[in-house]
Amino acid sequence: MTIWERLDRIDRKYIYTLLLLVLAWPLIRPLGLPVAVTPQVQSLYDTIEHIPKGKIAIVSIEYGVGTEGENGPQTRAIMHHLFERGVPFAVMSYGADGVKLGENCATAVAKQLGKKYGKDWCSWGLQVNPAVYLQALAKDVPGTLVKDARGTPIRKVPMMKNVRTIRDIGIITVSTGGWALGTWIQFIQGVYGTPIGYLPTAVMVPEGYDPLDAGQVCGMLPGMAGAAAYERLNSFPEKGTIGTDALSTSHILIIVLVILGNIGTSMTRRRRTGGGGAES
Amino acid sequence: VCTVGILSVVYRENAVYRFFEHIFIGIATGFGAYITVVNVLWPRCFELMIKKGHWYWAFTIVAGAMWYFIFSRKHFWISRMIQQTLMGLGAGWLFKGFASSNMAKFFASMKPLWGKSLPKAVLVGETTKIVPGHPLSSGEVFSHLIFIVVLFTVMSYFFFSFEHKNRTVVRTTQLGRFFLMFTFGAMFGSTVMARLSLLIGRMDFLIHDWFVHFRGLF
Questions:
Q1: How much is the ipTM here?
Q2: Fewer Cβ in 10 A, N or C end of chain A?
Q3: Residue among A97, A190, A213 minimizing CB distance to B100
């Protein structure tokens, strides 16, 4: 077997091992590669900076354990900013695991910054049937929620005392690995104009540019790179920044492997056809 | 251990992976059922019915039970009643949501090539303000031009009312296909990035949250 044929048929076990090494290296020793802040990330940051006093935020956790690695750092960065700005926020989800993941994120960030449940953040828990729920929530927040996730009547949660309708919500952020943004736009942003920040996984980013261009979302954090950019704006590098280093090194490896694979295929084909062009 | 067990499938399908996969599915299903009862059914239905005397919530049980008649050959028509009711409600909501979701995108696709940009509605505090358009820069004109060319060429590719025989139409649809390929390429690149991000998330957990407990052993 020639070297070109070997390049064309590298065993996937070697590729996976190489990938693990390339990923682990920046995680153990962060490289501190530069992170660019794109306009859509800046726009979301600016919107949160200008939330009027007295309003709260909703952090909608529409992801599961499958995309936690990507949506987690984004959500933590947003929560960090909301805490720093003194904007109380409520965590909610349409999925059972989303509730727990959101609460874990909020608890961890609150512990870092010395913030308290009930005053600085609360959990609305699991919500069902988004279309019905959002239309009811927009008109009557306490009547729709009844209780928080810990069983406390919602009117007795300190940060919820003055929250009546959707007009008391300053921003909604939607962290998702799917297309949960649609219902928020249909029943809230499109009707009441409440700003929405979109926190998608990288797979969903191309589809996020449509609502961004149409002004339906005020900003977007594209995948882990978006989380790193937001952490830079927060001046608090965390999991997103470290993860982006690993992302960059792994991308370099994949590009190199794609080039090597293509060279291997072309050279093998060339040899088979006796130095000519493509096989007929 | 669960993470390593699940990741072992990368090497090959094995019993350890199967074991942890079943554990994950079992826990996820059990947790889902528990949280639905605690967060939704109890506070919003059963508690109101039992503790606060809102007896009329019992009708929701009747409505829910109607679904199960789908298993009866004689009475399956009962399940159709609830199905049709919910389908009607769903269609109505979809129709209502369609305008608020798509009209903004429709208007955003109208991009001027000269003069001023279109006015924008911006939410300031409690009121919506109309921000007048500004004179277009050459960069914006170029960007709008690209947008319009891509929009029309891609739309022409999906126009199937007549056969694409005319040379101009064929070239336009070919260009549209190229633009679509660029989009799919970008989406594939994003998918690779997303999958790697997920692996990074697990690696980060293994290195920083799990392995840290064993540091003292080395």
A1: 0.77
A2: C
A3: A190
